[in-house]
Specification:
The chain is of the alpha+beta class and about 250 residues long. Helices cover about 20% and strands about 40% of the residues. The chain contains 5 helices and 12 strands. It has a 12-stranded mixed sheet with strand order 7-8-9-10-11-1-2-3-4-5-6-12. The radius of gyration is 19 Å and the shape is globular. The chain starts with a helix and ends with a helix.
């Protein structure tokens, strides 16, 4: 009964916010992450290896993530793994990957599994050079503006953010826009994240910092560690590094 009442309360808050054109500062956004594994592995041809991969793994994997946020903090995590998915080695998402952002003090702490190593990244939020375009689209009932940036010097990232939620956060480690990111795409990784729904929370909702653990690192050291570990991986190597640095 309590869960039903909370759901109805969230629906009423959402309806009020939309009809009154007010800003939203606290809530939960549910994201659907989709990866085209065939394109990621370049297995759309008809050689024997490609045919084997097509028989053993799905072309598209779909997973759900949740971003809880308020004015000062956000928490991004995967509630549960999709047991029906089969993933490319090294690309499997994990419930152990948790991202905590202190938006007030521009800090990030991220627990991340990369192959057999668990890292605890502690650093400032990345300073991304976003370029806001004139394009717009609707996502989960919100009018969103398009912005683009790059990571790892050359990896193009497309984001859609909404001014109706003036909280500078988003899925994975991305932030830095004048509104919450509700849509994200990394074309070179054939991966997208799009919000499917929003649940409003009371403005005073506390988002507690989780207990995180792992090998302590920062952005620069993590990238160096990954590049050294995958330098002999050939053509697929950079994709694993980019994916780990999202």
């Amino acid at each position: 009964m309590k869960g039903v009442l909370l759901f109805l309360f969230s629906c009423l808050l959402f309806f009020f916010a939309k009809t009154q054109n007010t800003f939203i500062y606290s809530g939960k956004v549910y994201f659907e992450k989709r990866v085209n594994q065939y394109q990621l592995l370049d297995i759309d041809n008809d050689d024997s290896w490609s045919e084997l991969m097509k028989k053993t793994m799905p072309k598209i994997t779909v997973d759900e993530f949740v971003l809880s946020f308020n004015k000062g903090f956000s928490l991004y995590e995967m509630p549960k793994e999709n047991e029906n998915n089969k993933y490319i080695f090294g690309m499997k998402p994990s419930t152990q990957n948790i991202i905590w952002k202190n938006l007030e003090h521009n800090k990030i702490e991220e627990q991340k599994e990369v192959f057999e190593q668990q890292y605890l990244l502690k650093d400032s939020l990345r300073k991304l050079e976003w370029r806001i375009t004139g394009e717009t689209r609707e996502i989960a009932g919100f009018d969103c503006k398009k912005a683009v940036t790059k990571i790892c010097d050359s990896v193009y990232v497309v984001a859609f953010y909404t001014d109706q939620i003036p909280v500078s956060s988003g899925p994975e480690s991305f932030s830095g826009l004048p509104g919450l990111i509700l849509g994200l795409a990394v074309p070179r990784l054939y991966t997208t994240w799009f919000a499917t729904k929003l649940e409003l929370l009371p403005p005073n909702t506390n988002i507690s910092m989780p207990k995180l653990k792992g090998k302590v690192t920062n952005w620069e050291a993590l990238q160096k560690d990954l590049l050294n570990g995958m330098k002999d991986w050939g053509k697929p190597g950079p994709k694993y590094v980019w994916n780990a640095l999202l």
